[in-house]
Design a protein that fits this description.
With about 220 residues, this protein is mainly alpha-helical. It has one domain (about 5-210). It is about 45% helix and about 0% strand. It is built from eight helices and no strands. The chain is globular and about 65 Å long. The model is unreliable at about 5-35 (pLDDT under 50).
């Protein structure tokens, strides 16, 4: 799964952003295996109008979810999805694990929906790894890790007993892409040129307006 494929995934999913929003997950419970232990966050959060000029510390607004082992697994998996290449660093190196941990810890409806999916997916990966090699997923070799991911990277092609795991992988992939491509290096990797001050604004070329039947 190279970066070109990852970019194709995120662009294909862009119609359903931001972060896939409502309707991205099927109705009903989608967790893989039993429900995660521990209650979901009950804090009120920052509401609908946060102070964008304030600097918040991790865990300041709500308790974070991931254990050290889960953070390690999340880093390994996010780097399988978006590895480092000649153009930009890997997903974990630009804070994607922090982003996903904050996301699944937040007390908002979409975040609450994703929390059990992600935590149960982590358990499935470790169980699948242990079934083959008696190790946790993060301790497997790269080839073994990619082999497990290849079995669940496409919901349409996943085996019947791996459909829920494939749904987890799809959701984690979307969160990874959302976290990576909203960072400065991610936008640069996409060659996105927005949010940059320009000395002047040139109108669209006349030939383009003509082709679009615009005045």
């Amino acid at each position: 799964m190279d970066r070109r494929t990852s970019i194709q995934w995120v662009l294909a999913a862009s119609a359903a952003w931001p972060l896939l929003g409502k309707g991205a997950a099927p109705s009903g419970p989608a967790a893989v295996g039993p429900a995660p232990t521990g209650p979901a966050p009950t804090v009120r959060g920052y509401g609908t109008d946060p102070n964008l000029l304030a600097v918040y510390r991790p865990g300041q607004l709500w308790p974070l979810t991931f254990t050290a082992a889960q953070r390690r697994l999340a880093g390994v998996l996010s780097d399988i999805i978006i590895p480092a290449d000649d153009h930009s660093p890997s997903a974990s190196s630009v804070g994607v694990v922090d982003f996903i941990d904050e996301w699944v810890s937040a007390p908002y409806p979409d975040c609450r929906r994703d929390r059990p999916i992600v935590l149960a997916g982590f358990r499935w990966l470790d169980a699948e790894a242990a079934r083959h090699s008696h190790k946790g997923f993060a301790d497997l070799g790269s080839r073994e890790q990619h082999g497990i991911c290849d079995d669940i990277c496409d919901e349409a092609r996943a085996a019947a007993d791996g459909r829920k795991a494939a749904h987890f992988f799809a959701r984690f992939r979307d969160l990874t892409a959302g976290g990576f491509y909203t960072t400065p290096v991610g936008r640069k990797d996409l060659r996105y040129i927005g949010n940059v001050p320009l000395p002047r604004f040139d109108a669209p070329p006349p030939e383009l307006l003509k082709r679009l039947n615009l005045p």
